[in-house]
Amino acid sequence: MSRRIAVGADHAGVDLKDALAQLLRERGFEVHDCGTSGHDSVDYPDFAHAVCAEVGSGRSELGLLVCGTGLGMSMAANRHAGIRAALCAEPFSARMTRMHNDANVLCMGSRVVGPGLAEEILSVFVTTAFEGGRHARRVGKIELGAAPTG
After folding, report:
1. pLDDT digit string (tens) for 40-58?
2. What is the pTM of this model?
3. How far apart are the first and last CA of the chain?
4. 2, 63, 140, 150: least surrounded by Cβ within 10 Å?
5. In angstroms, rounded to a whole number, what is the distance separating the alpha carbons of residues 137 and 125?
6. How far apart are the C-alpha atoms of 25 and 34, rounded to whole Å?
7. Of the residues 34, 67, 88, 107, which is catalytic?
């Protein structure tokens, strides 16, 4: 059974989203494309919400969001319970956010990273596992919105 990934973008990120979706398909992933599909101006939160609904419901294991900078997508995505969206512009952050934060949505900026680097970031993100252990306790505190102790 293939892993399912929901993808979404606004008009600034659609070309990179489409290229990355094709790469995922070539690597055996099932891709659920939440749009957009053209270059007409659209509102990025609509696509962030659609991808997060897929991931939050469990229909998709992971999500990918692309806009011009990735900033708006990450802000919109992180408003959803159970979503841990990470804005990544290099592979090290993608690896660490999966290992230590159990990030389930990757956000990227099409005006920040080029296609080659975006492919590398995505590849690291989808192949890195959560370490659990002490990190699980910390992720739990994110989910609960726990106040600092000590």
Report:
1. 999 999 999 999 999 999 9
2. 0.94
3. 45
4. 150
5. 21
6. 15
7. 67
CA separation for the pair 6, 55 (Å, rounded): 7
Catalytic residue status for 11: no
Structure tokens at 86: 């990470």
Query: Would you tell me how many other CB atoms lie within 10 Å of the CB of residue 72?
Result: 20
Q: Is 50 helix (H, G, I), strand (E, B) or coil?
A: helix
Q: Alpha-carbon distance 1 to 16, whole Å? A: 26
Backbone angles phi, psi at 4, to 5 degrees: -105, 130
Give yes or no: 67 in active site: yes
- CB-based contact 23:15 (threshold 8 Å): no
CA–centroid distance for 112 within its chain: 15
